[in-house]
Amino acid sequence: MFGLFFFILFTPGVTELLCTSSDLEMSYTFCDSTAHAFMFNLTPCSTMDKSTWNAVLTWIPRSDIIFLKIVFNVWYDGAKALHWKEVICSGADDEYSVCGMLKGETIATAFDIKGARTKFPKGNYSIILQGFSDDSEKNMIMCLNFTMIVKRDAF
Question: What is the pLDDT of residue 8?
Answer without folding.
Answer: 43
